[in-house]
Amino acid sequence: MAVRACGLVIYRRLQPAPSSKVTDSIEYLLLQTSYGTHHWTPPKGHVDPGEDDLQTAFRETQEEAGLQASQLTLIEGYKKELHYPVHGKPKTVVYWLAEMKDCNTEIKLSEEHQAFQWLKLEDACKFAEYEDMQAMLKEVHQFLCSRE
User: Fold this and answer.
1) For residue 91, what are the domain limits?
2) Looking at residue 58, which CATH number applies to its domain?
3) Where is each Nudix hydrolase domain found (predicted)?
């Protein structure tokens, strides 16, 4: 059976400069793992018994980034499943999209991560080494731009 994990793509909007587009003020939260290859990823983790996928996404976000569900706004209409092998076994990760209510809220990392960054789309794609993660970030950005 495939390993199942869930998480949130979290973004914040900074005050845009008068000359810039609103979408230029969007930054995405990526966490750097403190294990393995130290890859960068949105907060995510395995589904616990009795939990539904969205509960998992919020619990993992709280554990890994110190963010409560009340500090986030879940964005309707975006959900993405990524499928890839990990140690030769299939893995499914389901992501939702959430906006920070206060862009200055402090991020508190767990021991699973050693660093975090708020990144504009181009930099977020450079940090996220995996093609499917880069594609998802671009898709999220397009989704947000289409809602402006």
Assistant:
1) 3-14+23-146
2) 3.90.79.10
3) 1-141
